[in-house]
Design brief:
heterodimer; A: mainly beta; 6-stranded mixed beta sheet; 4-stranded antiparallel beta sheet; 52% strand; B: mainly beta; 7-stranded mixed beta sheet; 49% strand
Chain lengths: 112, 115
Amino acid sequence: AQSVTQPDIHITVSEGASLELRCNYSYGATPYLFWYVQSPGQGLQLLLKYFSGDTLVQGIKGFEAEFKRSQSSFNLRKPSVHWSDAAEYFCAVAHTGNQFYFGTGTSLTVIP
Amino acid sequence: DGGITQSPKYLFRKEGQNVTLSCEQNLNHDAMYWYRQDPGQGLRLIYYSQIVNDFQKGDIAEGYSVSREKKESFPLTVTSAQKNPTAFYLCASSIPGTGSPYGYTFGSGTRLTVV
């Protein structure tokens, strides 16, 4: 069965600092990989996705993620965090014909 | 603009009462989903439907029911059998279906509170 692990429940960073949110998955084949962001009381917005090709993918709002097959990871990064990036971030995996599996989320706090 | 509309945004339910959450999409997506979100537990799948007039139970279907009479609509009823319904409910849709490489599009959610 597929599973997704986001080991960090909560992360605090200073505005302007770099950010990396971790995501690990377990699945036999290369899955489709996604990062979503959720602001309080809102739905989830797709930040970026990977399904083949270049392992470094660019998303919206200046985010990027790198797929590392050897580590079964798909970590989300941003070089310089803005206060508006404070939100909950979810990693998700899927494969054709299978469900989406979401991680439990990482809550990001940005301090001035 | 295409999207998913969930209504109402806030809903209050009395003990023993059934309530229905609305989800409408104009994206022409075949598949639709209902998730429940509780703090610290991520998203849990309640029901999903890949085509009209067909739906499948997810991981936590007990106490919930759905219908899919139209492609655009996938209402969720929270029945009195659901003992702890207070949560944030999210509706989503996708093409072509589960495991879509295009990801899911989400509505803005309905917060249900038992009073």
